[in-house]
Design brief:
The protein has ten helices and 17 strands. By secondary structure, it is an alpha+beta fold. The protein has a seven-stranded antiparallel beta sheet with strand order 1-11-8-7-4-3-12.
Length: 373
């Protein structure tokens, strides 16, 4: 487990400092897609050796690498066990220079990280936000920060994955449950542009806390990125898309929401899925909301059909322009078929299995199994 020293830092001569406010509103338990989140505190079963093995591998994050130490400290403001290096891909942080002028760079970034919330002997609980998205305005030489903000986006109905380990045994130590929920707020915001540390306050300032609080602040107002005058810039959506495709190369194909995908599918007479198709994806909770939409009976019925065909955790479908499901596969079955067919080298050969799935959908459509429109 990293020592407390990783959460503290003494600035070197000439280095500037700044203050960050961290704000948090807890996960709304009623939004969880799985029940049982309140009963995760049973001690792990099995021998002390098993408990030790789980503790080392599951409870505590490794000491951060030097280049990750700032991110570790930021995440550590919310909880003492942040995992900058996630357990599963896509890991890491991707940044894009969105704008620049002669003095500053505006950098937008996205980080994938998580927390482990419990300590032994209670079972591990992992708290994995969908992403941490941020903005940084920094001088070109890296010595001064004019703006910083990072948050877990809250614009979707679900934005946090929770996984917890049930009472286990040496034979089955990874008996896990998972659910997705909604967290209204998790954000970090700089309160003022960075500045050199203040000298020790004088006796007069010690008597006047208001004067002491003003020490070290620069006269520069804290401006948001769009309030700077930039010599060159790209729009925000383009920058975010570049970042997203670094994490998810398949997003080089444009994905539409389900309603837009249905509209384009009928206009272009293309099936709904990916690449040579009209591409979409949807959360179960979004389909449930769409099913209840009385203002759009066509999409309501479409959502009802998709919910009926859905199987946990993910179902891939090829859908004809007339909303008929041509071909589908559950991801658990998909991975099982890939393993049985290809054996080793699964990561490289999964795309071949996926291509087979798409071709089978097109074959069924072309053979007239389902009318095109």
């Amino acid at each position: 487990m990293p020592k407390d020293e990783f959460f503290h830092y003494t600035p070197k001569d000439g280095e500037e400092v700044f203050i960050i406010d961290a704000d948090f509103e807890p996960l709304q338990l009623e939004t969880m897609t799985k029940e049982g989140i309140l009963t995760m505190d049973k001690p792990t079963g099995g021998s002390s050796d098993l408990l030790l093995r789980l503790s080392i591998a599951r409870f505590y994050p490794p000491a951060p690498k030097e280049q990750d130490s700032v991110l570790y400290r930021l995440l550590g403001m919310m909880h003492s066990r942040p995992f900058v290096e996630m357990r599963f891909p896509p890991r890491g942080t991707v940044a894009c220079v969105r704008a620049y002028n002669s003095k500053y760079l505006h950098i937008v970034f996205r980080m994938h990280a998580e927390y482990q919330l419990n300590e032994p002997p209670t079972n591990p609980v992992w708290f994995t936000p969908a992403q941490f998205a941020g903005d940084l305005v920094i001088s070109r030489d890296g010595s001064h920060i004019a703006y910083f903000h990072m948050e877990v986006p809250n614009t979707r109905r679900l934005n946090v994955d929770m996984e917890w380990l049930l009472e286990g045994s040496e034979e089955n130590p990874d008996d896990m449950r998972a659910g997705i929920g909604y967290m209204p707020k998790m954000e970090w915001t700089i309160t003022d542009a960075s500045h050199l540390p203040a000298e020790e306050p004088t006796a007069a300032e010690n008597k006047n806390p208001e004067e002491q609080d003003l020490r070290g602040k620069t006269p520069e107002d804290l401006k948001k990125p769009d309030e700077f005058l930039w010599d060159s810039l790209i729009d925000r959506e383009s920058a975010l898309r570049l970042i997203e495709t670094e994490f998810y190369p398949f997003k080089m194909v444009t994905y539409h929401n389900l309603t837009k995908a249905h509209q384009l599918s009928r206009e272009q007479n293309k099936p709904i899925h990916a690449q040579r198709f009209v591409s979409t994806w949807a959360l179960k909770v979004d389909l449930q909301a769409l099913e209840k939409d009385e203002n759009d009976p066509v999409m309501s019925e479409f959502a009802k059909t998709l919910l009926f065909e859905y199987e946990f955790p993910v179902t891939m479908m090829v859908i004809a322009p007339n909303r008929t499901i041509v071909h589908k596969v559950n991801t658990n079955d998909f991975f099982y078929m890939a393993r049985s067919v290809f054996g080793t080298g699964l990561r490289k050969l999964l795309p071949l299995q996926y291509k087979r799935f798409l071709k089978e959908g097109l074959r069924k459509l072309k053979r007239g199994t389902v009318p095109a429109a």
